Amino acid sequence: MANHTDEALLRLVMAAGALAPRRALLHSAGTAEAALARGAGEWRAHGCTAEQCAALQRPDTRTRAAALHWLQQDNRALLAFTDPAFPPSLLDTPNPPLALFVDGDPGLAWRPSVAVVGSRSPTPGGRALAARFASAFVEAGLAVTSGLAAGIDAAAHLATLEAGGCTVAVIGTGPDRAFPDSHARLQAKIAAEGVVLSEYLPGTPARPGHFPARNRLVAGLALATVVIEAAQRSGALITARLAAEAGREVCALPGSVLNPRAAGCHRLIREGAALVERPEDVLELLAPALRQQLPGLQSRLATPTEQAPPAFLPARWADDPDYQCLWRALEHNPSSMDSLITRCGLTAPEVSSMLLAMELAGIVVCVHGRYCRTP
């Protein structure tokens, strides 16, 4: 439901142009209302242009009314970058957004995620790989982030929803628009079961410059960006570059040298991206960063850490013989990774990714590099 804070923040968002002066103004003032109350002299002192100052003084009433109407619907919000609910991973990136329009549960944008991106016109094999990787990330307890574009993006979102997981869609239009138009139903489903994010005002159509800007948010939200099929000139390569600039992992799937959609992935690998062939390769790469973040994530996401977990596997693993074997091998006294590998007859990457998923579920803890069931 829209409120006075939303109205003041909307005026800051509507003063289009460089983000840095408006971020500095809001950070200095503490609230959007206080930022507006400071007046044109303070606005200019923080770097706002004459055009931005004019927009702050006389906001367009039609645009403002349309945005407030959108915000009045259930499960919609406008989050300033200073809001405690704002995704913290975006604050560590170059040029974070001033604010985000949120359609869905904003808490889902906090979940550790992997971005899956690629060609808008993938091969059938590329679509299948996107679905396979997304489903595996869900199984490991991760969210899947993408840009809701045609092709690989849509395949990753759909597979995540079908697997019962959390998907985050970052769009390059206003939150009330879908691009392409055929994705309107998928966007609505993501808003209902996951979350849709946009930094653009309701009513904003698709514009070419919005998509590279959208890509920086996809890259910034995720711990890693996985590129599946990308030509030499591809938006997915922009996302990969922005991920690297934000200090995130970049992974690429190799393909046939005869497939032009694999050329961008090969270029990324030559430039230092991790070559991955299976979802487990990505999970193994992310394990150290995830384990470092785990205590804070569990606290934020209300994963049980102090309560005793059930003495059985969650339903999603109950029929998996590998997970059953590993669960039996785990004891209340910590065991080394080598010991678990020997007892289960699985490979190190398999055991590592399974343990990570169990940690995220709150049923396993790592104590000085050794693993046991959560006490």
Short description:
The chain has 375 residues and is α/β, with parallel strands linked by helices.
Which tags fit this structure?
single chain; 48% helix; nine-stranded mixed β-sheet; alpha/beta; 12 strands; three-stranded antiparallel β-sheet; 375 residues; 17 helices
Describe the protein's architecture and organization.
There is one protein chain. With 375 residues, the protein is α/β, with parallel strands linked by helices. It contains 17 helices and twelve strands. The strands form two sheets. Strands 1-2-6-5-4-3-7-8-9 form a nine-stranded mixed β-sheet, with helices on both faces. A three-stranded antiparallel β-sheet has the order 10-12-11. α9 (152-162) links the parallel β4 and β5. α14 (279-300) packs parallel to α17. The chain is globular and about 70 Å long. The two termini are 42 Å apart. Mean pLDDT is 89; it is low at 301-310.
Helix-strand layout with pairing:
Blueprint: H1 4-14, H2 19-29, H3 32-37, H4 39-45, H5 50-57, H6 61-71, E1 76-80, H7 88-91, E2 99-104, E3 113-118, H8 124-139, E4 143-146, H9 152-162, E5 167-170, H10 184-193, E6 195-198, H11 210-221, E7 224-228, H12 235-245, E8 249-252, H13 263-270, E9 274-275, H14 279-300, H15 321-329, E10 335-336, H16 337-344, H17 348-361, E11 364-367, E12 370-373
Parallel strand pairs: 3-4, 3-7, 4-5, 5-6, 7-8, 8-9
Antiparallel strand pairs: 1-2, 2-6, 10-12, 11-12
